[in-house]
Amino acid sequence: MKILLDNGHGIDTPGKRSPDGHFREYAYNRYLAFLLRERLLALGLDAQLVVPEREDISLKERCRRVNAICRQIGNDQVILLSIHVNAAGNGQNWLDARGWSCFSTRGKTKADALATCLYEAAKNHLPGMKIRTDFTDGDPDIEKDFYIIRHTSCPAVLSENLFMDNREDVAFLESEEGAKAIVDLHIDGILQYLSL
Question: Which domains does the chain have, with CATH numbers?
Answer without folding.
Answer: 2-194 (3.40.630.40)
